[in-house]
Amino acid sequence: QVNEISATNTSFVEGLALRNVDDSKELGKNEFLKLMITQLNNQDPLSPQENGEFIAQLAQFSSVEGIENLNTSMNSMATSFRSSQALQASALVGRTVLINTDSTLLQPGGVVGGKIDLQSSAMDLKVNISNESGVLVNQVSLGSQQRGDVHFMWSGKDADGNQLPAGRYKFEAVASTGGVEAQVGMALSANVDSVSIDRNRAITLNLAGIGTVPLDEVQQIR
């Protein structure tokens, strides 16, 4: 408290290190101002505070007030941003998004879209598709491709053109260059079933066949 401070010998800067003994909170601008006034009222009249020191303390007070105002503004902006983000996320329900994964759910009569992240050109690029038992059901040939994002679609049919049942399927993208094959990363489409907001206001999407993923992991909305 203010009446516990020795204003004669305790400097104003040292006073800033004190904590409110009642609620253990850090000193704010009001306590900062009380400390400064108390120091001025109890200073040695034979050795008054220098003008430069007083100006420096005023500047410190302004800095404390400015930081508090900035924190308030930032908290307000963060709350507004999260609310806006939640509204935007709710509009994704029923939509299709692309997410980094190697398996997804084929909906009845639906299709699966994908995006392959090709780090270098490939003489041949293909996508192997397997069912939940690990049996290869189809292979999508994409031929020669340049470095960059390569998009593909799978209609949900096997190699003979027969429609496959709905369910979870695994995808593997393989790039071949000079006879050397290498698996490359990809993103697959998934339907957004619902949106969740936890107690920390973090937004997650509940994707069919994949589960819960953070909103910021979505690469594309379709």
Shape: elongated
Pick out the low-confidence regions.
1-24
Number of strands: 12
- CA-CA gap between termini: 60 Å
Structural class: alpha+beta
Beta-strand percent range: 35-45%
The arrangement of helices and strands along the chain is: HHHEEEEEEEEEEEE
**Helicity level:** 25-40%
For the sheet with most strands, the description reads: 7 strands, antiparallel
Number of helices: 3
Taking all Cα atoms into account, the compactness measure Rg is 32 Å
Q: What is the average of the pLDDT values?
A: 79
Walkthrough of the structure:
The protein has three helices and twelve strands. It has 222 residues and is α+β, with helices and mostly antiparallel strands. Helix 2 (29-41) packs antiparallel against helix 3. The two termini are 60 Å apart. The model is unreliable at 1-24 (pLDDT under 50).
Write the layout of secondary structure elements.
Elements: H1 12-15, H2 29-41, H3 51-90, E1 96-100, E2 103-106, E3 112-118, E4 122-130, E5 136-145, E6 148-154, E7 167-177, E8 180-184, E9 186-197, E10 203-207, E11 211-214, E12 218-221
Helix pairs in contact: 2-3
